[in-house]
Amino acid sequence: MALETADPVLDERDQRLVAALQCDGRLTAERAGEVLGLNPRTVHRRWRAMAADGTCRVITLPARPDPVGALFLRIRVLGGRLDTLTAALAARPDIPFVDVSASGDEILAVSWTRPGTRDHLVFRELPATRAVTSVAADTVLHVFAEATHWRHAVLSDTERAALTPVRPPRPAAAPAPPDDIDRDILTALEDDARAPAAAVAARTGHPESTVRRRIARLAGSGRLLSHVVVDPRRLGLLIDANVMMRVAPGRLDTVGRTLAAHPAVHGAFATTGPSNLHAAIWVRDLDHLYRFITRDLGELGVDGTETVIVGHAVKRPGRAPDVRRR
Description:
The chain has about 325 residues and is an alpha+beta fold.
């Protein structure tokens, strides 16, 4: 487990600019500068520089198939076969998250699956692999927070509220499904959610006025889901960990909702299995991890925990799989 990163931690200004994009992926430099007290030209220059060197990208997440559920997988692996199995899992489109424990003998992953079905990967493919010594697959019952909900805690509540777009009230009737034009626009924005309407129009062949109007409508309806891709270590968050908890059934919803709002938590969901609540967290160091477990979870009345520190984040949304040979 490395507590240092070859790339330096971003300074406070750049960290605040990353956090501003988390509030609104299509935020203008003028608005960001107004709220954060920065020159818009500086904002534009820093965003361009961070995008150019890969420090920070804003992408659009594709819509999740409906209905679809998820399994939280814990796969014990023989050390000599870890890389091969990790690469195979990371190549699958139905597995958006793959982590390797710091101990190097366990893979933690999330797999999309249809609720109530006998998952072929879990029941057939993994058990038939000689490298696998055990598989645990817990069904995700409820999602309290996902990666797109996480906000780096460097802005004040007032700043965050000023930078977050106000969506109109959700209509009583379900919104119309996206048509071919909407799908063309969303596809064009997948790799760069900040692409200007003119560039999207040129790529899709649709009129710029139509593209501009459709982007506004998609964003307002919540169909345009932007996600800021940034290495948490560049934000000074050097410890990546998964915490599995046991919580009394009557307190599960309250504890889950509380954790979803915690600044360290970038994922929280209720599951089946021996542990019924899972949290994915980023913290500065082991002291902060210790305080999270003993103080924050202790105050919530969590009955028990198991903590797995991530040694290598292999696959995360918006990042190409990083399969390393050991």
